[in-house]
């Protein structure tokens, strides 16, 4: 392999990366990228490894020996510190991060996103290890504009809705709105990491993903996850399309999101990994401001794309409205709009997203159809005995 250089033209040093939560959606794509395009080594830690099995076996894979899976739960495993000590860089992805859990399992959510991350931060700080920690765009909560009257012209002014790492406030709902348990725990761990940097010199980067989506995200209920489970919106809508059911629009599907293709986002993470001088001490929004839609528009686009890739007809009523109480239960609340400001990541890493929403849905739904359509047909034909 020719010498690989960083953004400043310096050769990139070979790293051992301790990746916690490597078996999840983002972890699986990051492992894939690191194995196929870099010479770095990965210590992959997770409770599960189904999504990275294709990278671990067989022994004849070109990267055999560069990725090592350690099955462990960071809540209670004394091996964690030793594995962190073996690494040059720690990436923490482990978390409960599905909104259906935030209001129904708030304790697990807070423990997972704050308490369980504490030893990781502590071991990094004590052992002088660089940390890339995954936070979330949910730390911004609601936009300032959402508190203005519906017809206020200020709602059109980006100053009232674009989310900036260093100036936007974090606006959450009341404590009964347990939806915010996740965002609040993530905000506190960000503050702790920032303070470790300021007081003890921890080298850190915080990533705030804005709705990264693509293949291997979450699960399809009843196929590779619990039948009653509620994954994030991409998997919910994929499941509905695969089963020829109407897509459920929570509270009218008026909330807005910007979706980014996982492969674009992973490019940004690789730049952070390989350019520590440009990434350390920063919090980065990683999203695609050009791909904004309401959830209703997302449903309509997914319906069209799925018809194209599957060759199936569209239902007469492709969507149905449900209340958030019915869908998520008591204590749900929502972010109204999420547009990332890209100034900091642009300046530090020169990174920009590339893939349009239509294109990313086309490749993702092609994957969903290829992976699940047969299994769904079989499960419908022969319901499991329960
Ligand atoms: N996907 C997104 O768009 C998105 C957006 C915002 C924030 N994030 C953040 O990025 C991170 C990764 O998200 P993801 O989408 O890949 O989620 P994911 O659920 O697919 O992956 C998380 C992984 O962490 C593992 N894990 C959780 N608790 C663990 C523990 N105690 N010990 C060991 N492993 C544990 C899980 O088994 C899972 O494989 C999370 O911190 C999440 O909050 C993701
Ligand atoms: O991905 C992110 O950037 C962050 O946002 C997500 O939160 P959210 O976008 O609200 O979660 P989704 O499940 O993807 O829902 C998006 C929107 O679709 C709606 N929805 C979801 C599912 C469904 O079947 N129907 C439906 O209308 C939700 O109410 C919400 O308004 C999750 O909190 C995290 O994964 C992450 O931190």
TrEMBL record:
Its Enzyme Commission number(s) read 4.1.1.35
> Cytoplasm as a keyword?
yes
SUPFAM superfamilies per the UniProt record, alphabetical: NAD(P)-binding Rossmann-fold domains (SSF51735)
Recorded catalytic activity of this chain's protein: UDP-alpha-D-glucuronate + H(+) = UDP-alpha-D-xylose + CO2; UDP-alpha-D-glucuronate + H(+) = UDP-alpha-D-apiose + CO2
Question: Can you supply a Gene Ontology BP term from the record?
Answer: UDP-D-apiose biosynthetic process
In which compartments does the protein localize? Cytoplasm
Show the GO MF annotations: identical protein binding; protein heterodimerization activity; UDP-D-apiose synthase activity; UDP-glucuronate decarboxylase activity
Pfam families per UniProt: Epimerase
The principal location of this protein is: cytoplasm
Transmembrane intervals: none
Q: Which UniProt keywords apply?
A: Cell wall biogenesis/degradation, Cytoplasm, Lyase, NAD
Where does the NAD-dependent epimerase/dehydratase domain lie? 17-287
The protein's required cofactor(s) are namely: NAD(+)
What's the domain of life for this entry?
Eukaryota
Cellular compartments per GO CC: cytoplasm
The UniProt family comment states:
Belongs to the NAD(P)-dependent epimerase/dehydratase family.
Which NCBIfam families does the record associate with it? PRK11908.1
User: What is the name of the protein in this document?
Assistant: UDP-glucuronate decarboxylase
């Amino acid at each position: 392999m020719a010498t690989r250089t960083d953004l400043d033209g310096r050769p990139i040093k070979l790293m051992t990366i301790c990746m916690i939560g490597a078996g999840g959606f983002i972890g699986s794509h990051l492992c894939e990228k690191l194995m196929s395009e870099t010479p770095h080594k990965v210590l992959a830690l997770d409770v599960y490894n189904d999504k990275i099995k294709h990278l671990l076996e067989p022994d004849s894979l070109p990267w055999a020996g560069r990725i090592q899976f350690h099955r462990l739960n960071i809540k209670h495993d004394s091996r964690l510190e030793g594995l962190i000590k073996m690494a040059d860089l720690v990436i923490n992805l482990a978390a409960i991060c599905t909104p259906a859990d935030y209001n129904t399992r708030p304790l697990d959510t807070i423990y997972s996103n704050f308490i369980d991350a504490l030893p990781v931060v502590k071991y990094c700080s004590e052992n002088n290890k660089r940390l890339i920690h995954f936070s979330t765009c949910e730390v911004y909560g609601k936009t300032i504009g959402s508190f203005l009257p519906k017809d206020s012209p200020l709602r059109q002014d980006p100053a009232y809705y674009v989310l900036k790492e260093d100036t936007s406030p974090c606006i959450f709902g009341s404590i009964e709105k347990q939806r915010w348990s996740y965002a609040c725990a993530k905000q506190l761990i960000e503050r702790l990491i920032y303070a470790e940097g300021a007081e003890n010199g921890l080298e850190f980067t915080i990533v705030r993903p804005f709705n990264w989506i693509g293949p291997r995200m979450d699960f399809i209920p009843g196929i590779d996850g619990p039948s009653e489970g509620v994954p994030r919106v991409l998997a919910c809508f994929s499941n509905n399309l695969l089963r020829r059911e109407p897509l459920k629009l929570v509270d009218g599907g008026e909330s807005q999101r910007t979706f980014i293709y996982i492969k674009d986002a992973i490019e940004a993470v690789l730049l952070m990994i390989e350019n520590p001088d440009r990434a350390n001490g920063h919090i980065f929004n990683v999203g695609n401001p050009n791909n904004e839609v309401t959830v209703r528009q997302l449903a309509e686009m997914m319906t069209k794309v799925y018809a194209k890739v599957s060759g199936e007809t569209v239902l007469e009523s492709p969507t149905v409205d449900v209340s958030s109480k019915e869908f998520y239960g008591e204590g749900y609340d929502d972010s109204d709009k999420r547009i990332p400001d890209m100034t900091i990541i642009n300046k530090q890493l020169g990174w920009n997203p590339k893939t349009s929403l239509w294109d990313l849905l086309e490749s993702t739904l092609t994957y969903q159809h290829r992976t699940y359509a047969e299994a769904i047909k079989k499960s419908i034909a022969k319901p499991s005995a329960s």
